[in-house]
Amino acid sequence: QVQLVQSGGGLVQAGGSLRLSCTASGSDFSKYGLGWFRQAPGKGRDFVATISRRGGTTYYLDSVKGRFTISRDNAKNTLSLQMSSLQPEDTAVYYCAADPDYGLGQTHRDFYKFWGQGTQVTVSS
User: Fold this and answer.
1) What's the number of CA atoms in the CB half-sphere (13 Å) around residue 53?
2) What pLDDT is attached to residue 105?
């Protein structure tokens, strides 16, 4: 079992930056593929970014490419999402997630078994 605890987020003006962090319990962190998803009001939980177990492979939602950067520190059991040039359409609850089975960096939420508690990101225009 893995517990993911998120921090960061908040309110920012359009064009601003925020950093999300996700810290995991347990000793198998380096074996997991990790991802970030987001859920806007009235919508489903959508893929944002993913990173493979050693950090060598990353994938991003097209609309965040060049603005968001996913990274991980396996020594500290930490996953991060640096978000810049934020826009109102980025407003959502953001979730970190862990995929313990494949570790390659998956874009579909069904691959992820463990989820953080979610953190609100609000971008004002």
Assistant:
1) 11
2) 84
Distance of CA 88 to the CA centre of its chain: 18
As a whole number of angstroms, the distance between CA 78 and CA 12 comes to: 23
* pLDDT of the residue at 2: 87
In order, the DSSP letters of 85-105 are: S--GGG-EEEEEEEESS--S-
- pLDDT tens sequence across 47-84: 999 999 999 999 999 999 999 999 999 999 999 999 99
**Distance spanning both ends of the chain, measured CA to CA:** 40
Rounded CA-CA distance 99/17 in Å is: 27
Predicted confidence (pLDDT) at residue 104 exceeds the cutoff of 90: no
- Dist. CA 109–CA 106, nearest whole Å: 8
pLDDT > 90? residue 103: no
Task: Read off the tokens for 83.
Answer: 């978000």
Q: Whole-angstrom Cα distance, residue 119 to residue 31?
A: 24
Which tokens sit at 80?
């991060």
Query: Which amino acid, 16?
Result: G
- Taking CA atoms, 61 is separated from 5, 25, 37, 42, 49, in Å, by 23, 27, 10, 19, 6
